Amino acid sequence: MSKVTVVGAGNVGATCANVLAFNEVADEVVMLDVKEGVSEGKAMDMMQTAQLLGFDTKVVGCTNDYAKTANSDVIVITSGIPRKPGMTREELVGVNAGIVKTVAENALKHSPKAILVIISNPMDTMTYLALKELGLPKNRIIGMGGALDSSRFKYFLSQALGCNANEVEGLVIGGHGDTTMIPLTRFATYKGLPVTNFLSEEKLAEVAKSTMVGGATLTGLLGTSAWYAPGAAGAFVVESIIHNQGKMVPCSVYLEGEYGEKDICCGVPVILGRNGIEKIVELPLNDTEKEAFKASAAAVRKVNAGLKL
Ligand SMILES: NC(=O)c1ccc[n+]([C@@H]2O[C@H](COP(=O)([O-])OP(=O)(O)OC[C@H]3O[C@@H](n4cnc5c(N)ncnc54)[C@H](O)[C@@H]3O)[C@@H](O)[C@H]2O)c1
Ligand SMILES: O=C(O)C[C@H](O)C(=O)O
C-alpha cells in the first residue's frame, strides 16, 4: 500500500495529484489545503474521472487535517504563494518560508519516515530551510525544479530542431531561478547525437535563454505561474521514488563538497529511488560550466541568507 500526500491543493498541487492518480503512481493520494472544502471538492472531482480514465488510485481531500495524511511514503509540498508577472521567485521567500516550515513539521508528525519533495518557491531556499529545520537525513529532502527546467529545455530544443521532444535529452542544473539555471547545451542530444551537430551556437544560446526564463514567460501569459508542467514534473519525481526507478533527474539537494559547494541545496543530477536520493552524479563540467555553477550557487546562497534559521 503506497500513499502520497500533496500539501497545497492549488494549481500545482492539484495537477500533481491528478497526474499521480491518472498514472496510478500510488494506491492513495491525499490533498491537504487550508482553504475550507477546496481539497475535498477537487478530490471528489478527480474521483469522478476515475471510471472515465480507468484509474484505481483513491484520491482524498482534507482541510488542514494532517491525521488523514498519516503514513505517507512521500509528502509533496506545494503550499505557498506563486509569483505574479514582473516578480522573481526569490521575492516569495518571506511568506513561503513560514508556510513550508509549518506544513512540513505537521506532516512529518504523522509520517515520520516520509521523503519530502519541495516545490514551493524559491525552491532551492525552501529545500535548504527544510534540510536545516527538520533534522531529516539529506537523502529524504528533494527540491523539484530541475525536472521541470529540463523538460522545458527539451521542449525548446525540440522546437529549434523541429523534432519530437521525446527524442531529445538534456539536463538543467544550478538554481531554479531566472538567472541561475544552467541548461547544459554541451551535453544535450537528439537521438544520441550532440545537438551541437544540428544547431548553431546562436540558436543554442537562444534555447538556453528561453529555458531560463521559461517560468517567467508563462507567468506573463497566465497572470500567475505555470502548473501543468510543474505538477507533472512533481509527479515524475514522486514516481521515480515510489517505483524505485533509479532514474537520473536533476534535483535540488544538499551538497557537501560535490560540485565544489558545501552547505547549500542546489540543482544537480541525482539517482532517485526508494530511499529518495540514492546518489549524486558528478558530471565532467568544463571551466565555463564550473564558473556558471559557482555563480548560481552564490546567488542561491544570497537568498538563503535571508532565512531566519
Ligand atoms: N519548484 C517549481 O518548479 C515550481 C513550479 C511551479 C510553482 N512553484 C511554486 O509552487 C507554489 C504553489 O504554486 P501554485 O501555482 O500551486 O499556487 P496556488 O496559489 O494555486 O496554490 C497554493 C495553495 O497553497 C495553499 N496554502 C497556503 N498556505 C497553506 C498552508 N499553510 N497549508 C496548506 N495549504 C496552504 C493555498 O490555499 C493554495 O491553495 C508557489 O510557491 C510557486 O511559486 C514551484
Ligand atoms: O515561474 C515560477 O514562478 C513558477 C515555477 O518556478 C516555474 O518555473 O514554473
From TrEMBL:
<keyword id="KW-0520">NAD</keyword>
<comment type="function">
    <text>Catalyzes the reversible oxidation of malate to oxaloacetate.</text>
</comment>
<protein>
    <recommendedName>
        <fullName>Malate dehydrogenase</fullName>
        <ecNumber>1.1.1.37</ecNumber>
    </recommendedName>
</protein>
<feature type="binding site">
    <location>
        <begin position="8"/>
        <end position="13"/>
    </location>
    <ligand>
        <name>NAD(+)</name>
    </ligand>
</feature>
<feature type="binding site">
    <location>
        <position position="89"/>
    </location>
    <ligand>
        <name>substrate</name>
    </ligand>
</feature>
<dbReference type="InterPro" id="IPR022383">
    <property type="entry name" value="Lactate/malate_DH_C"/>
</dbReference>
<feature type="binding site">
    <location>
        <position position="83"/>
    </location>
    <ligand>
        <name>substrate</name>
    </ligand>
</feature>
<feature type="domain" description="Lactate/malate dehydrogenase C-terminal">
    <location>
        <begin position="148"/>
        <end position="302"/>
    </location>
</feature>
<dbReference type="Pfam" id="PF00056">
    <property type="entry name" value="Ldh_1_N"/>
</dbReference>
<dbReference type="InterPro" id="IPR015955">
    <property type="entry name" value="Lactate_DH/Glyco_Ohase_4_C"/>
</dbReference>
<dbReference type="InterPro" id="IPR001557">
    <property type="entry name" value="L-lactate/malate_DH"/>
</dbReference>
<keyword id="KW-0560">Oxidoreductase</keyword>
<feature type="binding site">
    <location>
        <position position="121"/>
    </location>
    <ligand>
        <name>substrate</name>
    </ligand>
</feature>
<dbReference type="GO" id="GO:0006099">
    <property type="term" value="P:tricarboxylic acid cycle"/>
</dbReference>
<dbReference type="InterPro" id="IPR001236">
    <property type="entry name" value="Lactate/malate_DH_N"/>
</dbReference>
<dbReference type="GO" id="GO:0030060">
    <property type="term" value="F:L-malate dehydrogenase (NAD+) activity"/>
</dbReference>
<dbReference type="InterPro" id="IPR036291">
    <property type="entry name" value="NAD(P)-bd_dom_sf"/>
</dbReference>
<dbReference type="GO" id="GO:0006089">
    <property type="term" value="P:lactate metabolic process"/>
</dbReference>
<feature type="binding site">
    <location>
        <begin position="119"/>
        <end position="121"/>
    </location>
    <ligand>
        <name>NAD(+)</name>
    </ligand>
</feature>
<dbReference type="GO" id="GO:0004459">
    <property type="term" value="F:L-lactate dehydrogenase (NAD+) activity"/>
</dbReference>
<feature type="binding site">
    <location>
        <position position="152"/>
    </location>
    <ligand>
        <name>substrate</name>
    </ligand>
</feature>
<comment type="similarity">
    <text>Belongs to the LDH/MDH superfamily. MDH type 3 family.</text>
</comment>
<feature type="active site" description="Proton acceptor">
    <location>
        <position position="176"/>
    </location>
</feature>
<feature type="domain" description="Lactate/malate dehydrogenase N-terminal">
    <location>
        <begin position="3"/>
        <end position="143"/>
    </location>
</feature>
<feature type="binding site">
    <location>
        <position position="96"/>
    </location>
    <ligand>
        <name>NAD(+)</name>
    </ligand>
</feature>
<dbReference type="Pfam" id="PF02866">
    <property type="entry name" value="Ldh_1_C"/>
</dbReference>
<keyword id="KW-0816">Tricarboxylic acid cycle</keyword>
<feature type="binding site">
    <location>
        <position position="33"/>
    </location>
    <ligand>
        <name>NAD(+)</name>
    </ligand>
</feature>
<dbReference type="InterPro" id="IPR011275">
    <property type="entry name" value="Malate_DH_type3"/>
</dbReference>
